[in-house]
């Protein structure tokens, strides 16, 4: 009986809402800002969503910098401006986390894109301020890899100069919401 359940369970990243595989259900759509005419060239927002249930996974404003589906394999985390600063070290650590996550079968393109636009420290600060949980966080929690989440990294003492106690509390809350404190 357990083999039957295992055979039908989704493989790879799954939608946090309907729990179906995103390998077959991930969709994207570019939306121009409302009220723009054909003569303007606005930066569209890129919306990533589950094609099965419609759950929005990510909304990236001004996302004309790459097409997520089909080119995700070639997207890499940029080198930091200065790898000797704490911000640069955090970006290098995020790059290492993302490399490990990729080896497990999930490419967190939204996270990579945001890092490449604003830097890893600013990316983390923006996600914390917006109270947005990355889709990869849900997936990593489900896979039992809390150690690879951005939230767990934010809690590390080595980043005390980058993040406040309130930031670390927010990171813990996000892991709780994602189910990451099960049995702890």
Folded structure, characterized:
This protein is mainly alpha-helical. It folds into 2 domains: 1-64, no CATH class; 75-184, no CATH class. 44% of the residues lie in helices and 9% in strands. The chain contains 9 helices and 3 strands. The chain has helices at residues 2-8, 22-25, 68-71, 86-103, 109-118, 120-130, 135-143, 150-154, 165-177, and strands spanning 26-31, 45-50, 56-60. A 3-stranded antiparallel β-sheet has the order 1-2-3. Helix 5 (109-118) packs across helix 6. It is globular. The relative contact order is 0.11.
Briefly, what is this?
The chain is mainly alpha-helical. Helix content is 44%, strand content 9%.
Shape descriptor reads globular
The helix-strand sequence is HHEEEHHHHHHH
Which value, in Å, is the CA radius of gyration?
17 Å
- Kindly report the average pLDDT value: 80
The total count of strands amounts to: 3
Strand fraction equals: 5-15%
Distance between the termini: 29 Å
- Biggest sheet: strands side by side, in what order? 1-2-3
Q: Tally the helices: what do you get?
A: 9
Count of distinct structural domains: 2
Low-confidence stretches: 1-7, 63-74
Major sheet characteristics: 3 strands, antiparallel
Structural class: mainly alpha
Helical content, roughly?
Answer: 40-55%
Topology (SSEs and partners):
Layout: H1 2-8, H2 22-25, E1 26-31, E2 45-50, E3 56-60, H3 68-71, H4 86-103, H5 109-118, H6 120-130, H7 135-143, H8 150-154, H9 165-177
Antiparallel strand pairs: 1-2, 2-3
Helix pairs in contact: 5-6
């Amino acid at each position: 009986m357990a083999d039957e359940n295992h055979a039908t369970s989704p493989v790879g990243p799954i939608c946090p809402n309907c729990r179906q595989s995103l390998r077959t259900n991930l969709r994207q759509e570019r939306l121009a800002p409302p009220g723009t005419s054909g003569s303007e060239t606005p930066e569209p927002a890129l919306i990533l969503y589950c094609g099965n249930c419609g759950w929005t996974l990510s909304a990236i404003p001004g996302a004309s910098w790459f097409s997520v589906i089909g080119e995700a394999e070639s997207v890499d985390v940029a080198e930091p401006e200065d790898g000797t600063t704490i911000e640069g070290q955090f970006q290098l650590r995020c790059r290492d986390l993302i490399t490990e996550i990729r080896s497990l079968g999930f490419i967190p393109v939204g996270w990579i894109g945001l890092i490449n636009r604003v830097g890893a420290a600013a990316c983390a600060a923006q996600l914390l301020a917006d109270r947005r949980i990355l889709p990869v966080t849900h997936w990593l929690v489900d896979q039992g890899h809390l150690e690879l989440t951005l939230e767990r990294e934010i809690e590390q003492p080595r980043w005390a100069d980058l993040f406040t106690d309130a930031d670390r509390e927010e990171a813990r809350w996000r892991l709780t919401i994602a189910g990451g404190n099960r049995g702890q």
